[in-house]
Amino acid sequence: ELFTMFSNSVTNGGKTTLAEKLKNMLPNCDIISQDDFFKPESEVETDERGFKLYDVLDALYMDEMVASIRNWMKSPAGSGVLTEEPQSTCDNLKNVFILIVEGFLLYNYKPLNELWNRRYFLTLPYEECKRRRSTRVYQPADTPDYFDGHVWPMYLKYKSELEENASMQVDYLDGTKSQEELLSYVYSDIIEELNKLRE
């Protein structure tokens, strides 16, 4: 039995950390990260201001990502994710395989829309997001105006499109909360959903 979930986020919202911690707590769990499918810098478009347009789907090999997800779904046991004895909470879930897909541009990509059991979206206010972004080192490095000129506007555009899609069931999470609180909530939610699927 397969269970797939998305962890989507504004930049530096904490999705990767959350996904890794969930993987360690859940049985037979694997992660596919959207960051692994970025095109090389030479293939990423540059706008008239000189900004590299990384925060758009065209900056990613999305076909390859979809293929990786579908390959995992065809053969999850062959992906090397079989864990040792899961936590007692999951004892009745030993035959369930869980895939976490984490990224920043996932829910508006139609070829993936029908695959998910649960969708989570980590949000941050502008100032906190900009502060966290400033502490990270990127290749290529952010130019001084890159966050305000490209990253944040694209996030707002994407989130607005998502909110306008009434058919999309998304659980919005406050990224300013502690990792422990977020982890506890999402873990409990997943276990509840898995138990419903098994009934």
From TrEMBL:
SUPFAM superfamilies: P-loop containing nucleoside triphosphate hydrolases (SSF52540). One of its GO terms (cellular component) is cytosol. Pathway: Cofactor biosynthesis; NAD(+) biosynthesis. GO terms for molecular function: ATP binding; metal ion binding; nicotinate riboside kinase activity; ribosylnicotinamide kinase activity. It comes from the Eukaryota. One of its GO terms (biological process) is pyridine nucleotide biosynthetic process. InterPro entries: P-loop_NTPase. Keywords: ATP-binding, Kinase, Magnesium, Metal-binding, Nucleotide-binding, Pyridine nucleotide biosynthesis, Transferase. It catalyses: beta-nicotinamide D-riboside + ATP = beta-nicotinamide D-ribonucleotide + ADP + H(+); beta-D-ribosylnicotinate + ATP = nicotinate beta-D-ribonucleotide + ADP + H(+). It holds the Pfam family AAA_18. Belongs to the uridine kinase family. NRK subfamily. This is NRK1 kinase.
